[in-house]
Write a structure and sequence with these properties.
By secondary structure, this protein is an alpha+beta fold. The chain has a single domain, classed as 3-Layer(aba) Sandwich (SMI1/KNR4-like). It contains five helices and six strands. A six-stranded antiparallel sheet has the order 1-2-3-4-5-6. A hairpin with a 4-residue loop joins strand 1 and strand 2. The longest helix has 11 residues. It starts with a helix and ends with a helix. The relative contact order is 0.16.
């Protein structure tokens, strides 16, 4: 049994995860090659449930990790953070790679705040908020 079997059982039934598309094994290998040992709850989600739009433009989960500079341009104080998604309003979430906790970046102040201990908690809360 995988950790997201409960979500997979409702996929396709009007659930907020219906638009997500599983990420290919090759893309997952590239994530590991580029960023090392990323959390398995994150990679299992991408592999089993997928990446893309949650709900109706409620949240975008990328099919990989990106540096904050790819979204915000020049950044300072965001070193050691890799982004995995955004809320379509400029708030991005990602990992603090020193402990793999989930951070959210406020685009107005460019401040990062801890929002979850792990990806699974973060994504399940996002999905729950849409049901």
């Amino acid at each position: 049994m995988r950790i997201y079997d409960d979500l997979l059982s409702v996929k396709g039934s009007g659930a907020p995860i219906d638009k997500l598309v599983p990420v290919s094994a090759e893309k997952l290998r590239l994530i590991s090659a580029d960023f090392g040992e990323v959390p398995t709850d994150y990679t299992f989600f991408l592999e089993d449930v997928g990446a893309g739009e949650l709900g109706s433009a409620a949240y975008m989960l990328y099919d990989g990790l990106i540096e904050p500079s790819e979204v915000y341009g020049e950044t300072s104080g965001l070193d050691g953070i890799l982004l995995f998604g955004d809320d379509f309003h400029g708030f991005n979430a990602g990992f603090d790679i020193s402990n793999w906790c989930v951070m959210e970046i406020d685009p107005t102040s460019m401040q990062a705040s801890y929002v979850a201990l792990d990806f699974q908690s973060f994504i399940r809360n996002r999905i729950r908020a849409l049901t």
